[in-house]
Amino acid sequence: MGRPALVGRPSLVEAIGVHADAVTRVLARADQAESLPALGGMARPDGVVIVSERFWAFAHQDGSVHEGRMLRSTHWAARIPFLRGLVRLTASLSPLFRRRGAARPGERWLLGAALLAPLTLVLLPEQVAFAAGLAVTLGLVGLLLRGRTLFLHGAEHRAIMAAEQRLMSATWGGEARPTRFAPRCGTNFAVLVFPVAFLAQRYWPIPAAFYTPLAVSVASLAFTMELWRIVQSGRRWTRLLLLPGLALQRLTTQEPRLDETRLALTALASVLSRELPPTLDPPVSAAAGRSS
Hints:
Blueprint: H1 12-17, H2 20-31, E1 40-44, E2 47-51, E3 55-60, E4 65-69, H3 75-79, H4 83-92, H5 94-97, H6 105-121, H7 126-144, H8 149-164, H9 168-173, H10 186-202, H11 212-231, H12 239-252, H13 258-275, H14 284-288
Antiparallel strand pairs: 1-2, 2-3, 3-4
Helix pairs in contact: 2-13, 4-11, 6-7, 8-13, 10-11, 10-12
């Protein structure tokens, strides 16, 4: 963004215009809906992903929209505390690793290697493992936050908040600007993970072994996911736990341009077009001319 468009490649404004009519029809219907599914998402350097429990969509800056179904956990796994959180966390990453998902093939390999790195770090001496883990973490952050990611992160939040406030059409037109700070953002989850992981490592009850760092990491994520369920329950006292993450979002999101917000709303419309009762209107991906 900010650079001239490549020859033969549409600008972001032109790309969104490819399917603007289909998107605005879906957004208008969704604004009138009595209920909508819980929504989440993620920002990429070249687009925005929006997900519900059943569907995902990735709106790319080139005008394409990639779609798919989310991984569904089995009924028994969804009922088991701690396991259900790990399953849900794994499912949330599925749009990144689909063949026509939100990451390119080379990037999928890099992300997979970064996620699996802790399995090998446990075999290294403690100081070497710390240095390697820090390098992997910084590299992963740099990979995920390059380009316009922070601005598209703000656009993703704005689109989801517009859905919750039924201001999607007004947000598309620029008349409304819902907040770019979101209570269900992964930033809030990350802020909860760090103190849980610190306490788990400090007070781990089992004698140390080569697998202890991995076990502590998995246990910390599982416990934090249970805490996350409580935080998202809407109880008044739990809002205090969100304050550090909401403050940190001032760094992890930036104010998006209107065309970036419309890109996020395009992904949102793709998901909602499959969640809402069917109509005779063509799907958003068909208007874009590409889907997975």
